[in-house]
Design brief:
Layout lengths: L1 H29 E2 L2 E2 L3 E2 L7 H19 L19 H8 L4 H11 L10 H14 L13 H4 L2 E2 L5
Parallel strand pairs: 3-4
Antiparallel strand pairs: 1-2
Length: about 160
């Protein structure tokens, strides 16, 4: 009988201990330096007017041929279909994803004829221009050259 009690206590204690360890790890993971990291929205002013201006110039020089001057896709009839990169169509496609995911996508695939040729700053400027054309508000800080920070900015449909 004592063996049964000992076994039952051990059998019940193990899952409870594992659960407590899991909760503790989740709390540690959810905080950075003792502060909880709260995701930001792209609608909270995450880029500057200067960043948008640089992105607009880059778009005119590099992106217009595929994405069109209004960023609505399919710039030239002889080009393969290209997606809209601003406004509702863009927001529907990217809603729920992070700016870091968008940054990595652009970095790895754009421009399609020579991916990887844009600098990180050019990519961020292009994203800022996409946000501006989507009528997202301008802020007082530029999109940062930091993937961890960009991973904390969520793309959302207009609130």
């Amino acid at each position: 009988m004592n063996r049964l009690r000992t076994w039952l206590r051990g059998a019940l204690a193990r899952p409870i201990a594992l659960m407590m360890i899991g909760v503790a790890l989740a709390c540690v993971t959810a905080s950075a330096g003792g502060q909880t990291v709260k995701p930001m929205s792209v609608w909270s002013g995450v880029y500057t007017a200067a960043q948008n201006k640089r992105g607009e110039e880059l778009h005119s020089a590099v992106c217009t041929v595929c994405h069109g001057p209004q960023l609505n896709g399919a710039g030239q009839p002889e080009m393969p279909p290209s997606p809209a990169i601003a406004r509702a169509t863009f927001l529907r496609k990217w809603a729920g994803r992070t700016v870091a995911a968008l940054f990595v996508y652009v970095r790895d695939t754009m421009p399609p004829d020579s991916p990887g040729t844009l600098t990180d700053q050019q990519i961020l400027d292009a994203i800022a221009h996409m946000f501006a054309v989507s009528n997202m508000p301008v802020g007082d800080r530029e999109l940062p050259l930091d993937l961890k920070a960009l991973a904390n900015i969520m793309i959302q449909a207009q609130p």
